[in-house]
Amino acid sequence: xxxxxxxxxxxxxxxxxxxxxxxxxxxxxxxxxxxxxxxxxxxxxxxxxxxxxxxxxxxxxxxxxxxxxxxxxxxxxxxxxxxxxxxxxxxxxxxxxxxxxxxxxxxxxxxxxxxxxxxxxxxxxxxxxxxxxxxxxxxxxxxxxxxxxxxxxxxxxxxxxxxxxxxxxxxxxxxxxxxxxxxxxxxxxxxxxxxxxxxxxxxxxxxxxx
Length: 210
Description:
By secondary structure, the chain is α+β, with helices and mostly antiparallel strands. It folds into 2 domains: 1-88; 94-207, Immunoglobulins (Immunoglobulin-like). It has 3 helices and 8 strands. It has helices at 2-15, 20-87, 160-163; strands at 99-108, 114-123, 132-144, 147-153, 165-168, 171-179, 185-195, 203-207. Strands 3, 4, 5, 7 and 8 form a 5-stranded antiparallel sheet that branches. Strands 1-2-6 form a 3-stranded antiparallel sheet, with no helix packed on it. Strand 1 (99-108) and strand 2 form a beta hairpin. The radius of gyration is 38 Å and the shape is elongated. The termini are far apart. 8% of the residues are buried.
């Protein structure tokens, strides 16, 4: 009875235009096509991921190169500034000061609350060749909500002391970074250079933000 029903079903499908063998072949072909498309999609996805990583690496390399170029440009500008200064520096004379501050600049960096302080310290003609040892103090005068604020760097009992020590015979370029609270408006900055063992500054100079 079951065989009769199955034969009748198959005969009915063939009379309706459906051939079991052809349908199975079509299904098999479609399955193969789907598998091939899935494999191609996976390959394309892997290739895209590789290309994205390459682009990221290239961008990172380009950023590093740009940062290096900027650093070299800044260094070159500083060297030109130093050269210009020393070309006009008198080599003789007995009335010059023992120590002087030149090219003093204080600028806000791209980081909020962070400031760069740059200067050139030069010994006078009579002291040139003798080693100067001392330290640098940065005193910031500001205003917070109408109240005067004074902050000194390096702060007492911190590891910053070593970073502010000075030792040179002829000249020394100084580049320091200090951080201030965001709610303090800086009015001016005073630079003090103290010789080792002395309480009073050897030289001091004030500057506004540039």
